[in-house]
What we know:
The chain is mainly α. It has 13 helices and no strands.
Amino acid sequence: MKRADLLELVTLAALWGASFLFMRLGAAEFGPVALSFVRVLGASALLLPILALQGQLSALRKHWRPIFVVGITNSALPFLCFSYAALSINAGLSAVFNAASPLFGAVIAWLWLKDKLTPSRIAGLVIGFAGVLWLVWDQAAFKPGASSSGWAVLACLGAAVLYGFSASFTKRHLTGVPPMAVAAGSQLSASLFLVVPAWHWWPQAMPSAQGWLFALVLAVACTGLAYLLYFRLIAHVGPANAISVTFLIPVFAVIWGGLFLAEKVSGVMVLGCAVILLGTSLATSLLRLHQFGVFERNERP
C-alpha cells in the first residue's frame, strides 16, 4: 500500500468514525428517521451527478431492482438503527458494534453462499461473537432510566446483521456492476424508501442551523465523499486491503466522541473492542492461526 493510499484509508476511517459523532449530534433535533433521510438524500445529490459524468447511469437503470434492495439493507435501515442508538449510547460504543458486521457477514456467506469456513475463520467467529456478547452483557439495560438502552444496543446489532446480509446479497446479485452505480443507486433507493416515513416523522420544531450543519456534514462528507474514497481504495489496493478500514473506525469514533462530546471510554469497552477486532481479523482472513504459532489442517511447520 502506497503512502497516498494509506492516507486515504486513514481519511476514510476518520470520516466513517465521525459519522457516529454527527448522528449523535443530529439525532436529537431531527429524530432518527428524518436524519437518515437527509443523510441519504444529501449523499445522492453528491453521487448521482458523478455517476452521470462517468456515463454509468445505464448500469443503474439495468440493475435497479437489486440496487434498491441494497439501498434498504445497506443504508436506509442501518442508518435508522444507528441514529436511533445515538439517542442513548455513545458514538464509540456504536462504532464498536458496527465493527462486528464482518462477523455476521461471514456467517451469512457461509449459510447462503456456501463460503468455506477454515479453522482460522471459525476461531475468529467464536472469538468475535464472544466479544460481542461480553459487550452486550455489560452495556445493555432494558429497565427505565438505564444509562445505556438495551434497545439501542440491539439496534446496533441489527444494523451489523443488515450490513452482513448486504455484503452477500451484493456478491450474489451485483457482481460485475460498476461500484459507483451501486453506491449512488443505493443512496437514491434509500431516499425513496425513507421519503414517506421522513414526512410522517419530520420534527415539529424546525432543526436549528447547527443541526442542519451536522446533518449535511453527515450526508456529504461522512456518506457521499466516504463512498468515493472507499471505491477509489478498492480500485487502487483491492477489497481485502480496503476492508481493513473496519479496524480504524472505532478508534476514530472514540477519539471524536472524547474530543467533542467528552464521552468516557471504559476498560470493558476497550477490551471488548479488541476481542471483536481480533475475531473479525481472523474471520475475514486478515490474520490466520499460523501467525500465532497454531497450524491449521494441511499446514506444516
